[in-house]
Amino acid sequence: MTVMIVDDNPKMRLHLKLLLERHLANNDKICECSDGGEAIKMYHQTEPDWVLMDVAMEPVNGLTATEAIIKSHPQAKIVIVTQYDDPEYREAAKNTGARAYVLKEDLLDIPGIVKSVF
């Protein structure tokens, strides 16, 4: 399995990576991006099984990146991982095709989502 972590905060990427490494198999791969534009490019190269996508990033935000990835790869499984518990963001994430919306305060939910089959 390959998981892509997309977040502009290096500490958050490291935190997510360490969390995933405790729950995934040794042969699973984790790749990282620091913004949505980088994620779009890397998705085409790696076609990960899951993407953990932050929302607030520059120059390309997570919702724009999610929409672009799903437009070209409808099978993409993207989880929005954000600090914003906002109904408008949740609706926007749903409309872009994201599979789940997880608050950063609930990060322990992520391994279960990634291990599941949607």
Strands, helices and their partners?
Elements lengths: L1 E5 L3 H14 L5 E5 L2 H11 L3 E4 L8 H11 L5 E5 L4 H10 L3 E4 L6 H6 L3
Parallel strand pairs: 1-2, 1-3, 3-4, 4-5
The radius of gyration is: 13 Å
CATH topology: Rossmann fold
- Summed up, the domain count is 1
- The name of the CATH architecture is 3-Layer(aba) Sandwich
Say which CATH homologous superfamily is assigned.
Response regulator
**SS strand fraction:** 15-25%
Instruction: Provide the succession of SSEs.
Output: EHEHEHEHEH
Strand order of the largest sheet: 2-1-3-4-5
What is the top-level CATH class? Alpha Beta
Provide the residue-averaged pLDDT.
93
Q: Alpha-carbon distance between the termini?
A: 14 Å
- The overall strand count is 5
Helical fraction equals 40-55%
Structural class: alpha/beta
Sheet with the most strands?
A: 5 strands, parallel
Based on Cα principal axes, name the global outline: globular
Low-confidence stretches: none
Helix tally? 5
Descriptive notes:
With 118 residues, the protein is an alpha/beta fold. It has one domain: Response regulator (Rossmann fold, 3-Layer(aba) Sandwich), CATH 3.40.50.2300. 44% of the residues lie in helices and 19% in strands. The protein contains five helices and five strands. Strands 2-1-3-4-5 form a five-stranded parallel β-sheet, sandwiched between helices. Helix 1 links the parallel strand 1 (2-6) and strand 2 (29-33). Helix 2 (36-46) runs parallel beside helix 3 (62-72) and helix 3 (62-72) packs parallel to helix 4 (87-96).
